[in-house]
């Protein structure tokens, strides 16, 4: 039996966990096991903060039910009331806040609705040629959340606020973008996917540390960014970086045509977990609405390297 299959069988095997999760047992048999696990960062009476890996959905989405952060925590902790109070994209890794008490859940949800929580992300792109290290810019965009194509669309306008007032469907997205400087990162999965998709290595302006040839391995010098969203729009950060001309490495929707297959809920399919989007929710800070204490958490995830994908060993 493979290692991943063994983990799956042990994880799904406890009947009390299935009952706590309130998930149809058929979903467990139908879905492909996603070989990533969330790590608990904070454990309180009212909430959990976990470090979500890429490719593991935060919540059930109709096709994937059992293989989500929310359902795995419900089963492993034996609690049926654990609910994520905000979103992280499937491909985005990092900190996720979940409520475990229905009586106080709305108070934590309101932190996000009222913009009373500080969120910080980091991402990697190709090296920019029009930013200097430490430079910050305030970026306000107008997003169309329902374009014909996948993802969101940036609506070009000289006055985003006025345009949003005229068309309620359009959403303002405000982000503080800071270029932190160059960093050495292992992006071999991004390069391999790009080349496999028909692109040549020469078409990707990335270079190994200390070398400008672009053909010398997977450890490259890339741009390191901090993103501080002040609104919570779908794909806000990914669309913002693409609009700036620096789509996030591993991107499957914006910028380069590098497509990542979403893990499938259908048995028999073989989802792949590469390339990994180099976007991580690195920090959360807020005043606990129940205790009044200031809470601040940081992810231990290393954005300069892809998350390990467990291998199946026969």
From TrEMBL:
One of its GO terms (molecular function) is RNA binding. Transmembrane segments: none annotated. It comes from the Bacteria. It catalyses: a uridine in RNA = a pseudouridine in RNA. One of its GO terms (biological process) is enzyme-directed rRNA pseudouridine synthesis. InterPro entries: PsdUridine_synth_cat_dom_sf (IPR020103), PsdUridine_synth_RluA-like_CS (IPR006224), PsdUridine_synth_RsuA/RluA (IPR006145), RluA_PseudoU_synthase (IPR050188). PROSITE patterns: PSI_RLU. Residues 47-241 form the Pseudouridine synthase RsuA/RluA-like domain. This is RNA pseudouridylate synthase. It comes from Corynebacterium amycolatum. The lineage of its organism: Bacteria, Bacillati, Actinomycetota, Actinomycetes, Mycobacteriales.
């Amino acid at each position: 039996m493979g290692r991943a299959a063994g983990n799956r069988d042990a994880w799904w095997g406890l009947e009390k966990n299935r009952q706590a999760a309130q998930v149809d047992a058929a979903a467990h048999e139908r879905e492909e096991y996603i070989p990533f696990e969330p790590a608990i960062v904070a454990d309180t009476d009212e909430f959990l903060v976990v470090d979500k890996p890429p490719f593991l959905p935060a919540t059930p989405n109709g096709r994937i039910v059992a293989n989500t952060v929310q359902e795995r925590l419900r089963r492993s902790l034996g609690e049926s009331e654990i609910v994520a109070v905000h979103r992280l994209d499937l491909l985005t890794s990092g900190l996720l806040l979940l409520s475990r008490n229905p009586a106080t859940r709305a108070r934590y949800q309101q932190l996000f609705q009222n913009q009373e929580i500080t969120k910080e992300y980091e991402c990697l792109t190709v090296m920019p040629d029009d930013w200097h290290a430490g430079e910050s810019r305030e970026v306000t965009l107008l997003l169309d959340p329902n374009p014909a194509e996948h993802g969101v669309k940036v609506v070009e306008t000289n006055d985003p606020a006025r345009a949003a007032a005229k068309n309620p469907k359009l959403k303002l997205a405000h982000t503080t973008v800071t270029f932190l400087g160059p960093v050495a990162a292992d992006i071999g999965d991004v390069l391999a996917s790009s080349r496999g998709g028909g692109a040549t290595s020469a078409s990707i302006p990335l270079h190994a540390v200390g070398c400008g040839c672009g053909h010398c391995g997977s450890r490259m010098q890339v741009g390191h960014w901090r993103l501080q969203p002040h609104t919570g729009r779908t794909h806000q950060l990914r669309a913002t970086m693409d609009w700036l001309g620096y789509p996030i490495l591993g991107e499957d929707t914006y910028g380069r045509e590098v497509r990542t297959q979403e893990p499938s809920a259908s048995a028999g399919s073989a989802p792949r977990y590469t390339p990994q989007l180099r976007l991580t929710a690195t920090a959360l800070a807020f005043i606990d609405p129940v205790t009044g204490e200031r809470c601040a958490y940081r992810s231990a995830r290393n954005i300069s390297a892809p998350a390990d994908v467990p291998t199946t060993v026969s």
